[in-house]
Amino acid sequence: MTKVKIKTPSRIHMSLIDLNGLLGRIDGGVGFALEEPNVTIECEDSDDVVVRGGNNVSRFQSVARKLSQTFGKGIKIDVLSDYEAHVGLGSGTQISLAVASAFNEIYDLGLSVREMAEITGRGGTSGIGVAVFEFGGFILDGGHSKREKPNFMPSSASKAKPPKVLARYDLPDWKVVVAVPNLKGFYGKEEVSLFQKFCPIPVEEVSKLCHVILMKLLPSVVESNLDEFGEAVKMIQRLGFKKVEIDQYGDLIWNLFDHSDYPIGMSSTGPAVYSVVDTNAKSVAREVRRYFEDIGLNVEVYITEPDNIGAEIFYI
């Protein structure tokens, strides 16, 4: 009997890059892996599909049953840790790839991470979640050609293959404050409608965003320059589709940004927000918590670090 333990990172999705497509490509993204929260599961072979524990039982069951039908095998899954879906931290991709990896290891299927992503339908717009599972660290992906993916659609509605990674770097031992307020995120039909309503993004916005990513964000990562990284985060929030995403929460997220002493960004379609800091993580966490609680919202706050490893698989 083979039994495996799989631990995956979560991820910050900083921004999609090109939702205009003038140059024949769309999507593209930047983001990075986090140590916490994470998905950790223990799995073994089984005649049936059995899932125990965790907060996303139905999601685990759905993925496991689909893969069971695909491979003609069963699996038993004990969920040791997971985190809320549809908050902007990428749990869907991590759950899907964790379960697929369990099948892959237990039954020696010989699948690559990209093949598992295609089988489970992940990475159709952004490649950040798939890439941080495989590599960890900071990721820049190159999006899709319009021949492969002609329409502006979120990953949940796209059948395109995961995009290729253009650049991957380790991040320094910075601290990352992540706050998840008790707000309904945008996903499913709402997210599809968002893409349909606001895309294509004006090419001027895309050009400005590319300038920030190439000449401020990427150099700040390579040079381990936290101040420049923070400035890039602040600039990204005001550009392209990221601004559209933040606008969906009215003034709630903007007011946090405007009144904070620290650079704060929103991950994916939110509502999770993040701030990359060094020694003052606790004070930033207190500030963000106080902001949301003062306006009557419960909030879960993590103080974590970048994950430069990606998913880990242990035989037990």
TrEMBL record:
Gene Ontology MF term list: ATP binding; beta-ribofuranosylaminobenzene 5'-phosphate synthase activity
Keyword Heme: no
Enzyme class name: transferase
Listed EC numbers: 2.4.2.54
Pathway, per record: Cofactor biosynthesis; 5,6,7,8-tetrahydromethanopterin biosynthesis
Highest taxon in the source lineage: Archaea
Record has Transcription as a keyword: no
UniProt entry keywords in alphabetical sequence: Glycosyltransferase, Transferase
Reaction catalyzed: 5-phospho-alpha-D-ribose 1-diphosphate + 4-hydroxybenzoate + H(+) = 4-(beta-D-ribofuranosyl)phenol 5'-phosphate + CO2 + diphosphate
Pfam family, one: GHMP_kinases_N
UniProt cross-references to NCBIfam families, sorted A to Z: beta_RFAP_syn, BetaRFA-P_synth
Record's subunit section: Homodimer.
Role summary: Catalyzes the condensation of 4-aminobenzoate (pABA) with 5-phospho-alpha-D-ribose 1-diphosphate (PRPP) to produce beta-ribofuranosylaminobenzene 5'-phosphate (beta-RFA-P).
PANTHER family: BETA-RIBOFURANOSYLPHENOL 5'-PHOSPHATE SYNTHASE, HOMOSERINE/4-DIPHOSPHOCYTIDYL-2-C-METHYL-D-ERYTHRITOL KINASE
Protein family per UniProt: Belongs to the beta-RFA-P synthase family.
Protein name: Beta-ribofuranosylaminobenzene 5'-phosphate synthase
